[in-house]
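To assess whether the prediction recovers the assembly geometry, we first specified each molecular entity separately, as shown.
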Amino acid sequence: MSFPWAEHYTPKHPVMQWVDEKLPLPRLVYNAIGAGYPVPRNLNYFWNFGVLAGLALVIQIVTGVIMAMHYGANDLVAFSTVEQTMRDVNAGWLMRYAHANGASFFFIVVYLHIFRGLYFGSYKAPREMVWLLGLVIFLLMMATAFMGYVLPWGQMSYWGAKVITGLFGAIPVVGEPIQTWLLGGFAPGNASLNRFFSLHFLLPFVIAGVIILHIWALHIPGSSNPTGVEVKGPQDTVPFHPYYTAKDGFGVGVFLILFAIMLFFAPNYLGHPDNYIEANPLSTPAHIVPEWYFWPFYAILRAFTVDFFFVPAKLLGVLAMFASILLLFFLPWLDTSPVRSGSYRPTFRKFFWILILDVLVLGYCGGAPAEEPYVMISQVFAGYYFAHFLIILPLIARFEKPLPLPNSITDAVLAKYAKADGEPAAVPAE
Amino acid sequence: MASVEHSDGQGLSGGEGVRRRDFINIAAVSFAGVGAVAVVLPLIDQMNPSADVLALASTEVDLSAIQPGQAIKTTFRSQPLFVRQLTPKEIAEADKVDPSTLRDPQTLEERTVDGKKQWLITMGVCTHLGCVPLGAGEGENRGEFGGYFCPCHGSSYDTAARIRKGPAPKNLEVPKFSFTSDTAILVG
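The predicted structure of the complete assembly is given in tokenized form:
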């Protein structure tokens, strides 16, 4: 599971020896995130976001369990119990704002984590399973976030639930029964609210379980690194503790400072004023938008405005939106280049940044009203998104001439410092 | 009394070639499978609308106060229902359109009751993604075809509530309803 030179766990205290014989849990932790896990010595700060995502999940579970203590999952009282939490419960406002903004921060760090994986080719063999499990976590996060947003039972909650469950209604023949089944009625109501609450409570623990699988799968080949060259010997690694616990600790500090700024100075910046109006089935808000983290996908959903042969536009939009995420499951086999890191792939790197720009533009259009020019822009940029993965990536893999790779991680690190000191690059010692 | 020697390659249809333990294996797994399905069905079915939700499945509407050109919003199965009395001009506009040019071809006659063509009863649920279109309330935007306009994604419906422009695939749904008197209908 680990490199042969990994440190061994040797408990000195008799109590720890006794525990280790009966239940080697401290040993497991030591080998997973302690000194017993050797990690490439050259990880940069983009490798902080996995730990930060884990921290965000812990914040969501702690604040969420507390919110549930003050919440009434019933359409008559849901809105007012959330407002009571805000106004009457001691520190209730803090819990709710931390939970709502915590969701946004969870998505920010997860998007950066995915961004890291895309740029440095972390999805490639032998880490395909790590990538696939990460996507499962991402899908579970989206489902959890959506259901959580329904719970305050404001206008955006209600209409968001209606629009998103309406997506299933687009499926031919079985769509409408599925929609009714999901909602437990003909429109969002008490039954929908209750089941969403139940599942919103459950899914974070499912996510925690898949995260364990994600880390387990990661620890079989070990972490990748910015050069994309595999570890070759003990000189390429340092123990996770104290080196990366310290580096991650710094990242955690920065994360918490930014989180606190948002939480205390702009807690409603990412929210929608409409959600402070109680749900009203007879009045649609003028402009229904999901939370910012769904905007790129929402833009793809709305990009289809005309029927294609016998497939209605609505179904096309739904299929495209799901396809835009499911496509990522095939990424390890679409990008066939043997070079992992974008740092050594000049052509890939250019198209990578174009893709990031493409997704940002889609995000902007997803948050904008459904009118021109945004619809047309969404269509072009949604088309490019699919072209990037299905056409451009396989072609680059075929025709690109990558830059020469360093012989080892140590070589790359020493060359970098030699250049900085104005000395010739060090000759590999061994 | 299973005879192992004769069972090879005979399969299930081989009559006496069927091994006793194959039979037991398949029978046990099938039986457990039937049991599992029987358990899963109620687990799934509990999510369907409950009896109290279904009990509200019909609605009575009094039409006496609705003037020509006016519409009211009420609810049917906890979703908005539009009840509108069309003006002669709106009826003429709806009849003028050739149904074959429409995305969801229907005439006004097909969408109303015989002899009571002025009463347009539709769900107030956009067939795109389920928003409530504007146009039933006083002074609301009725879109460029004078019927209903959905603010979410810009679908426009005409005076027979047929889809004319925008992403919605179908006309506003006409629920099952009947006149219980000259000025009252029962929907559902």
